[in-house]
Amino acid sequence: MLSSRIGLSRFGFRRPAAGSARPLIWFAPLALGPVLVAATTGIAVDRALIPGFLWLAAAAAFSEEIWYRGIVMATLRQRSRRTAIVGSAVIFGVLHLANLFGGASPLYAGLQLAFAALFGLVAALVVEHTGSLWPVIAWHFAHDAITYVGGDALNATTLAVLAVEVVVLAAYAGVLWRRLPA
User: Fold this and answer.
1) Owning domain of residue 135
2) Is residue 80 part of a domain?
3) I want to staple 61 with a disulfide (CB 3.0 to 4.6 A). Which of 11, 101, 140, 160 is the partner?
């Protein structure tokens, strides 16, 4: 009987490749968003709920990164590296439209679609450059945890922070895209 063994490393569960990432370089642009959100919103939920929100953020970070930057990218990479990156980002963004079913306004859902697709693009590029899911799991956790604890409000301050974060992430995506091997 033939057996096949697919290791978790195929899906990104490994250390970043030697020389592929200096943690401060990779995390500087990624850390900006969560830091800005934390600085502008503070804690907007009952402190007793914080542990639950942290567990939720960890669950979302692990499950979404395993699916989109792990399994989806590994599957699409058979076509090409760039197809895997863009495809996983688009699917990640579109599936965030499910928040409409939870009562999110169309404006909020549209902003979340666009931001999730950009977030997914940068996350996929970081995974492609480092060969590891760990940096993006940490980033995803930090982003979601701070957003949940900050109350996830849509107001002028959070829109301004979002605009800054989008500009930084778009620029970072451009840099990482240009550095992809052909």
Assistant:
1) 56-178
2) yes
3) 140
